[in-house]
Design a protein that fits this description.
Length: 194
Amino acid sequence: MDLVVGEILYSALSLIIILDPILSVPLFVSMTKGKTPREVSHEAWVATGVAGGLMFVFLFGNILIFEILGISISSFQVAGGILLFLLGLQEAMGITIGTARPRVSTASVVIGTPLLCGPGTITQVILITNEYGYLVAAGAAALALAVTWLVLKYAALIQRILGETVTDIFGKVLGMILAAIAVQLIIAGIKALL
């Protein structure tokens, strides 16, 4: 039982790093400015629900998706590791690779995806599911989503307490950790392919 709890906590931590709700704080605050606390809470629920819906679709549908596309877990692990590395690089260095053009104006959807649950989160959910199984992946996803919801709900307070500089530094440190996790995934995937 302790092993499962440890796996859930480790996996949840990796998902929280990739979801990086602290990075969403300034955007969420600006997009919900002037709304009542109840409306802000609702936006946090919807954003977390959008991210969670995507996570659970890929959590339970990944084997079917792999079979349909004819992709091996190892090759996906290498590709996912490369993608996670690029996302970590973006966060750590404050650069943008590619362009994102969100067309929806509501904070909940724009933040739910692609900001919270983008390709990196989907990749990590699939990798956790394949490494630890559905129970650990579902528990980790639920825990990561709970933390994300709390951060969004109290985003204005967090931004006041931390300030923009600290929020930015925290995002960069999480980016470096994400890049390190990505390197481990790439190495494991290459070993499995060989």
